[in-house]
């Protein structure tokens, strides 16, 4: 959109085209950076580590966490009226690692707990209360 605005402004000799060209360049740079952005969690049973990668493919940050530092795998299940909400986390000594979304969260949590050799903790709730007016 900003590229089209810049082109028509330059065509008509307006200085506002420079600002739109700058916005178009910045937005295109953000698109290129976010296209390659990844978050990955890999469990390596042969090395007994959990590997997390975050960032662009060519310049990502990696972190290896030993199985000994993992305390549990937590499965959180909330049941709002529309559809259930799931969250699978690997709980370590000093951090919690969110696992990417999946269509089979119960199976993923159980498999992670068995592979890492830690307990599986299930947290559930019947409903989500989101009524601000009832809070005095």
Q: Structural class of the helix and strand makeup?
A: alpha+beta
Helix content: 25-40%
Q: What does the largest sheet look like?
A: 4 strands, mixed
The total count of helices amounts to 3
Q: What gross morphology would you assign?
A: elongated
What is the second-level CATH architecture of the largest domain? Roll
Major sheet: order of its strands?
6-5-4-7
Structural domain tally: 2
CATH topology of the largest domain: PH-domain like
Q: Low-confidence runs (pLDDT<50, min 5 residues)?
A: 128-136
Q: What brief labels describe this structure?
A:
136 residues; alpha+beta; PH-domain like; 2 domains; 4-stranded mixed β-sheet; 3-stranded antiparallel β-sheet; 3 helices; 7 strands; elongated; disordered C terminus
How would you characterize this protein structure?
This protein is α+β, with helices and mostly antiparallel strands. It has two domains: 2-35, no CATH class; 37-125, PH-domain like (Roll). Helix content is 31%, strand content 35%. It is built from three helices and seven strands, in the order ααββββββαβ. It has helices at 2-11, 16-35, 105-116, and strands at residues 37-44, 49-56, 61-66, 70-78, 85-92, 96-98, 120-125. A four-stranded mixed beta sheet has the order 6-5-4-7, with helices on one face. A hairpin with a 6-residue loop joins strand 4 (70-78) and strand 5. Helix 1 (2-11) packs antiparallel against helix 2. The protein is elongated and about 70 Å long.
């Amino acid at each position: 959109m900003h590229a089209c605005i810049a082109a028509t402004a330059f065509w008509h000799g307006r200085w506002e085209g420079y600002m739109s060209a700058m916005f178009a360049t910045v937005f295109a740079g953000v698109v290129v950076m976010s296209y390659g952005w990844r978050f990955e969690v890999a469990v390596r049973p042969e090395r007994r580590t959990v590997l997390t990668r975050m960032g662009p493919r060519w310049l990502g940050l990696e972190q290896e966490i030993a199985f000994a530092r993992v305390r549990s795998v937590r499965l959180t299940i909330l049941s709002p009226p529309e559809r259930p909400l799931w969250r699978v986390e690997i709980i370590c000594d000093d951090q919690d690692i969110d696992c990417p979304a999946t269509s089979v969260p119960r199976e993923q949590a159980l498999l992670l707990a068995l592979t890492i050799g830690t307990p599986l903790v299930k947290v559930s709730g019947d409903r989500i209360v989101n009524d601000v007016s009832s809070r005095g």
